[in-house]
Design brief:
Blueprint (H helix, E strand, L loop, with lengths): L14 H17 L2 H7 L2 H25 L2 H31 L5 H22 L2 H20 L6 H20 L7 H21 L16 H31 L9 H18 L9
Helix pairs in contact: 1-3, 1-6, 1-7, 3-4, 3-7, 3-8, 4-5, 4-6, 4-9, 7-8, 8-9, 9-10
């Protein structure tokens, strides 16, 4: 599937106006996958839908604090998370099937495939449900009214820098402990890295050489986002190892040995690169 078009913001927008642009762009990325997922149970459509949902929730999370509106944004984000949970379970089983189904035989293979089909049944039931359609309508109303309901609505140029600062500090602090962290702590770091990466992509046009344009390849924003993606990928691979091990044990298969030390080393190197690059949005020329 092609990547979604870049989000282009201008510095004259308010935070609620920027949030509208971000959420609607992410929403289109989600909705375009509904038909192929329902019609063909396409794993790529499922994956792309989940990416769009994660990006949408990241946008809400990044701009929730600048708007001083905790309750409404938190409710929308939680409802989206709860609805998306079955998609996550289906994706975990897709990864297990992709990486291990060919080597399995007999009962473990059959059980794995049955689990995957059941997870897809649940995911498709959610996407086709009234609750899903009600949420899309509620989200549209929420965006149309939020400007009049939030207590503050600062310029996005101000809110974006503060949002990126918070995520950068969290990634810097938590990432320094990767080698000594347990799985739950690494998962929290991965979530913060996702928000930092998506925030960089959402806000990069505010810091582009040509105002109001997408960040160019090789720009500080693009290079920074790539470094964060490398950390996110390494931590994601570590989580996949843990999740797939549980699934394989559940179906009676022996999980393979995986060199997790190499994955941890990848994460440590990526984190060091992020810290070395520093916050491009605070560079002297801004």
């Amino acid at each position: 599937m092609p990547a979604p078009p870049p989000i282009v913001l201008t510095r004259d927008l308010s935070t609620t106006q920027a949030l509208d642009v971000i959420v609607r762009s992410c929403g289109r990325q989600v909705l375009v996958q509904v038909e192929p997922l329902l019609d063909t149970r396409d794993p790529v459509a499922l994956h792309d839908m989940r990416v769009g949902i994660r990006r949408l929730r990241a946008g809400l999370s990044l701009l929730r604090r600048p708007l001083g509106d905790g309750e409404k944004i938190a409710w929308v984000s939680t409802e989206i998370r709860d609805l998306a949970a079955p998609l996550g379970r289906a994706r975990e089983l897709d990864v297990a099937v992709r990486d291990h189904a060919e080597r399995l035989r007999g009962s473990p293979r059959r059980k794995l495939l049955v689990l995957r089909e059941g997870a897809y049944d649940e995911a498709l039931a959610v996407v086709g449900s009234d609750r899903w359609h009600d949420l899309t309508a509620h989200l549209d109303r929420f965006l149309r009214r939020i400007h009049d309901e939030v207590p503050v609505d600062p310029p996005i140029a101000e809110a974006a820098g503060e949002a990126l600062d918070r995520r950068f500090r969290r990634v810097s602090r938590r990432g320094a402990l990767i080698e000594r962290s347990h799985a739950a702590e690494r998962h929290k770091l991965r979530i913060e890295a996702k928000k930092l990466r998506y925030g960089t992509q959402f806000f990069s046009s505010l810091y582009a050489a040509a105002p109001g344009s997408a960040a160019a390849a090789g720009s500080p924003a693009e290079d920074f986002a790539d470094s964060v993606a490398a950390l996110q990928d390494a931590l994601g691979d570590l989580r996949d190892v843990q999740t797939t091990r549980h699934i394989l044990e559940l179906v009676g298969a022996t999980p393979p040995d995986v060199d997790t030390a190499a994955l941890v080393a990848r994460a440590v190197a990526a984190h060091a690169d992020i810290v070395a690059r520093g916050p491009f949005w605070r560079s002297p020329q801004r």
